[in-house]
Amino acid sequence: MLIMEKREIYSEQPELEQWNLLEIYSYPNNIRKYFKNNSMDEPSEEKIEYITNSILQAKEYFFLAKKATLYTQPVLVYYGYINLLSATYVLKRGEIPTIENHGMSIKNKGNNIGEIDVHMNNEKSGALSIFASLLDQNLDIKKMKDFKIRELFSVIPETLEYCIMSYSNNPIHILPIEEIIHKKYTEDRLKNNYIMLLKDKIDTLRNDEYIKKNYLPIQYSEEYKYILMRRKITYSPEYFYCINNQRYISIPFNEKANGLKIDNKISILMILYALSILCRYNPSIWNKFIKLDSSGEKLLIQSFINWSIRLIPNYILNIIENKNIIFSTKEQGIINKKDNENELNDIIKREVEKYLKERR
To answer: Is the pTM of this model over 0.85?
Structure first.
């Protein structure tokens, strides 16, 4: 997995700033410059118009969604996402995508939103298959089978706690991971309460190919609060970041998709599609859910929509610029060079040696 270089940008209004940065790519001269810098042929006027209109329409969809309610938000955010993906496809691939349909359908509609299946139905020219290659270059699209909405939620960091609350028997497929740096080695640790939410608990972790390849045998901390994983010499990281810069590792869907890992950006696209179809073509189901939900699932859906409005433009910006762009209010222009223990020991050693030399 390619871990992108970080770029930190100071902003107290990241939602506005990310759109200002995206709009740079709606100007014809900047589009031509992007093509040239990426060794592509001069874009035609048709491609320039396609990119410009897609970005500006997407912005309008997202800004309308910000003011709307759950009755219409899924439709607005989904089409905003599709527009951003369309513009990005042309910028990255140099050609306008030929899309026949959404490439998805929904099945098993009912009162419980999480039990609805999202079915992939067009591997060649559906929007899902075409744009999935932008969002995850390692994805084997042929492994994409039917996924329930609750399963798709299990790979999204920002709404993970709501997912756990709403679908208590639903295994999760991501794990927050902490890096512990010691003097002579580095290890990673996982909270055991998350391990207990995996399908086969600790056995899921022990049998995971990534874990076996990169870590020594798993150990427990005192009182079994953490799982400790010491890195092998051949350690090669495969993690991704959520919006607060927390690292996560992905757990494959071995139970139904033979080792498939679903990128959270693809999961968001599929969930938005399903919710938009319910919202637009099944108002009796959607309106009833909004008015009468007694399970708390509505809190998950609302949180998901709110996060989608914030996250999707940031994700698209990352793909266009090939960087992990982080918006921060941290002071800029300050480099922390405070002495750590090793540096302090070196300074003391040099000063002692200097003193002894002068005494001779």
So the answer is: yes
